[in-house]
Design goal:
4 strands, about 90 residues, about 35% helix, Alpha-Beta Plaits, alpha+beta
Amino acid sequence: MSYVMISHKIANYAKWKRVVNAAKAWRKASGEKCFYVCRNSRNPNDLMVWCEWDNAARMQKFMKSPELRKRMKEGGVVGKPEISFFSGMEDLSA
């Protein structure tokens, strides 16, 4: 599996969430397996998004797509997001 972590600020969480939810089918068809969001406890419009993808090539294609940029703008993303890619994850909780 492949993973992407995105840290960004948004103008309004309710609006952003509506745009994200409206994109579920598109994200899934693009190879996304899961989508998690964490809100900063001091500023709830500072978000960290963590997504799992079926493969790195599809993830990279999605992240570079003009459609994603359009939807991020529509959702009220403020400034340039910080994006990090990961090739694996290990569960050390047990």
